[in-house]
Specification:
With about 70 residues, this protein is mainly alpha-helical. It has 4 helices and no strands. It has one domain: Cytochrome c-like domain (Cytochrome Bc1 Complex, Chain D, domain 2, Orthogonal Bundle), CATH 1.10.760.10. It is about 45% helix and about 0% strand. The two termini are about 15 Å apart.
Amino acid sequence: MPPGASSCSGCHPVGAEVETPVSRLSGRSAGDIAAAVRDFRDGKVPGTVMDRIAKGFSDAEIAAIAGWYAAQKP
């Protein structure tokens, strides 16, 4: 897990055995995940928590986290 991903995994768990009302990121396209996080960070998409969390990530960190989630089995 890359640095910063632990901030994501609390709401977006990797394991399918964990129940969550939040959308799963595992197996999604890294490009789609990264674009969504950048949109939250840049204020293009309103969020209740995501906009605040995303503000702490650089483009490189977002790419690393998105790539890691994309590589996980859904």
